[in-house]
Records
---
Amino acid sequence: MSDSNQDRIVQSAGRSWRLILIFVLLLVVAAGIVSKLVSLYTLDQAFLQRQGDARSLRTTLTPAHRGLITDRNGEPLAVSAPVATIWANPSRTDRFAPELDRLAVLLGVKRQELVSRLENHQTKQFIYLKRQVTPELAEQIDQLNIGGIHVDREYKRYYPAGEVTTHLVGFTGIDGSGQEGMELAYERALTGHPGKKLVMQDRLGRTIKHIKSLDEAKPGRDVQLSIDLHLQYMAYRELKAVVQSHHADSASAVVLDARTGEVLAMVNQPSYNPNDRSHLDPKGLRNRAVTDLFEPGSTVKPLTIAAALMSGQYTVDSVVDTTPGYIRVKGRTIRDHRDYGKLDLTGIITKSSNVGITKLALSMHADAVRNLYENVGLGQATGSGFPGERAGSLPYYPEKRVVERATMSYGYGLSVTPLQLAQSYIPLANDGIALPVSLLKLDEPATGKRVMPADVAHSVLEMMETVISPIGTGRRAAVYGYRVAGKTGTVHKAMNGGYSGDQYISVFSGVVPISDPRLVIAVMVNNPRGQEYYGGEVAAPVFSRVAGNALRMLNVAPDQWPEKPSTTVVMK
């Protein structure tokens, strides 16, 4: 065999072995592929399914609306309106998408501004573009179908009564949590619990399919307040009018149900619109009826008279000599407007005699007046639960502090809120029984506490009726057709450790109607400017209008119709 034949045989054998090797390798690769396919579809299928779902299935929250706040008749005071939030994932947003032009127009910004925001936060996965937009606008943005741009549904709080109820109701922040008032006080009850649902999303985070609901959204509980919205509107209108006409710094008015202690109206000036807080003045933010303190002045004199009757030292017919119209107490002179001479207890109330009240207070046990003040609720929180409520001040003065004891008896040296002042009159209107104040509608009357005998309460109430008579200081508090009991107060404002000579607080507090008390009303006007500043000139007319309108709204029968003049028929 020649050498060339041998070479051909060797080359042919080499090619055969290479083909066999390649074929074997192909078989090994095919076997590996088949083995891997079998593994993927059998052993690893569950694992791979979980990994795929983790990259495409998401659990999202379903918003739950906040509970309603309503008045005692079910009128809405705070409701949750559906809105939407527009947000972006800058890392997944195409900043060159042509739809961004339309998005910028809908958001009310320039395209370059929008693109700049996305570029500046491109390492982040979440930024807000605009919050609390209307559902219609959100739908238009959603239909643009821009990758990385998302729309979330939520709720925005709306207050139908606006500034009329804002100090009581309060408001929520942009995240929906209570910031002031009853929104804050009942945050846990009002807050809803969001639901959960499983959705499928694409690689850009867009929801392409709703899989199932995991947990239903639970709305917050409704809260029903004690106020009557119609009374609230009316009282707010009257208070705003007196502040404007007398150029006062501020004012508050409270209307209580004498039988239950429920707050039927609580209004303040200045106020603000909770639906638009862009120009909010901090001076109008607080609920002055429960946060602002002032010295009540002569409005507490009926309570001092009640303490005198309860001491057993005095009766309704007891006479006190106020001559010569002033009294010296430890070097301090306490004066009346003029010399009223001898006055019985009714006369002391009618004329608002500081001298007569001082003699009564200093003749009794050192704690007699203060104890009654405390029992009717002065110097302590009313228990309303309102955020930021102040308890006021009711100092304890030992027996030797006679000047302080004297001034306390006619309303100086202690401080109260308008709500406290109104609450302190409830025992006079409720047969001597004090009641806790409630800002929520009560299903049944609260349990009260007796603080004075019923006959004492009745006697003092009848004495207070003379304040509204032509010879009293509160003539302008009269309500046509109804018997009114009340007391005026004109207090020098405390300033810089002393008292201002030309700034006053005008106060009137009263009960109506006397024959069957239904309402207790307190009005406080801070620093009225002008010729009129007495409580009987500024606060009393507000009481008259609020009380008269409220009694008619509540269908309370008149208890004092004026007598009709007799007519004589002449026969011819």
Note: Confidence is low (pLDDT under 50) at residues 566-572.
---
Amino acid sequence: MQPRQQLLDIWKAQIAYSWRPAEDGSKRREWHWGGRNDSDAVGDAQQLLCLLYPAQELPDLRYADPDATSDAVLEALSGLGDAVEIPIRIMRLVKDYMEKHVDADGVPVYSGGSNMHRVDRTREAAPEQRGIDVTEGFALAIPLSLAALTFLADFAPTVDRMGRADLVRELEHVQRIIHRRLLGAITGLLRSFAVSTFDADDDFGRQLIALINVDGQPDRKIVRRFREEAEEIIATLRTITVGSGGTAGVEAPTKLFEIGWSWSVVEKAPDIPDVSDTSTQRVGRAEDAPYLYFTVVALEAIATLFSDRVMRRNLLTEEERRLAQSLQIRLDVTRRYWAMVASFGGGSKWPLEDVPWRTTDGLEYDYYSLLVCAVATETFGSSRGGDDDLIRLANVLVELANRGRITRRPLVGDRAVEMHFPGVKAELAGIEKLDGPAMIWNMVDFAPLLLKRLYDAAGLLVTINARAQLLEVADLVWDHLARRRIRDGRASRLWDQPRQVFTELPNHFEDPSWHFTIRVVEAMVLAAQFAGSEPARSRSLEALAHELLVEAEHIYDQELLRGSGNAGPALAQEIRSVGLTIRHAKEVVDERPGTAFSLGVKALIDLDRLIAAGRDAETGV
């Protein structure tokens, strides 16, 4: 796969597509915002993140310091200029984005209008519908802002050395407008959190009970068990007092509920008064009910607020940190809720394993199973401990690769192809109140999202065989994605051309989908981080290595006792070399038992040769 090289190739292809001659006919070049969809806050954030995100997550891809930028990075970004021009141009791209996506009063907007599609194509969408803030806009603003702040912090010393006051002022201005967007995104996510309650005997309740009742128990018993398992979750919901959410009636003993993020700020979401800038807190329009897709993107964004990089560099203001703590409560309780539902009952079969996942509004897609895996993975891997839960989740991911026609060929008229194009549709309930048609959001990122989840789960697994199986499937998913890369035209080497895999699809695209491409970039970053992590340790091999080293050390001590260490210079040097080998093996045995085992074998072979040589010398043979 070579993820770092793939990221460099994506950068080169992105520059070739986006950095174009100016439309006024002059020789200068300018950045072209947009791709397959028109320019909006969501799509442009994804486009910019393709440049910023890898450089902040992988140190060897950074370009903020001209003196430390590698030749490979310079070559990939050469379309933007030399080592000094590249960071200046990217700083101005960040500035352009931040200043472009504001309303008439200069207040940041988080809209994704071109991602919305009308259900009734005969009706035009109202401008207010296209311009509404969406949860994905809030979510993208967080990693974008944090990546931009990291980049600017690394670039600032170079700007100081240049001695250019205009660049210093420009950098400080960009930092200020980034923080304004970041604060608005955090408050937006606080106000789009949703808690949906319903009775066991209404439509939503019956759907949830049918989903989690894998043992065929009476409904009243399922309700009672659900309430018992959700007791700590309900207690946590009581602590949510900032923004939307809270208990919302979940404390009633007969109620069932779901939690997560809606597609936008929920209707009647309260303002958050104790913030320095309340201008981004617009009136909520979304139904107060969670959507799995928007829940996943919100959780991934919130997690970046607490990454080691952000905490170590102290990127957040005191106000942002305070509000982020409220988001962390939501992140934790949401993960625990969906892990509970996914593995409800803890028996021989989980609801998650009964693919496809069925939502409470009666929809079922393999894509929803993948989204539940995305929410629950961290809980299975940390809070609950051990590999048993993770292995069961990993088996679901392998099955999803099959059912998604990635590791198997599609059938004629296969419904699974719809997940790849035109995608799974989510109705944006509540948007029709803005004097326009009902609208949907298309989700087409099944394949790259699956690749992300495979690497995520593999990184948490300790069991070597289970990890190896996931990595084999990950290679097959990457082969699938590589075949979907656009092959010609201005967008060559970007994504997505699903027709190249699913030949029955009629659509051929000339422009890239930044929504799809950023998902591939995120997967490549995870793959690179995984490759740089410690290998999985085999407990049995570790025990065997320890036993082998005990034997090697004992024989080594015997040789020292026999006086081999005081023999001639050549023999003394060899015995000292064996001792160093054993010592090094003991140092690495806990982290790299396979390496320690190999070193131990080498030490034993060398010792056996020395012993045999000593016997030959004694007998004169």
Note: The longest helix spans residues 135-162.
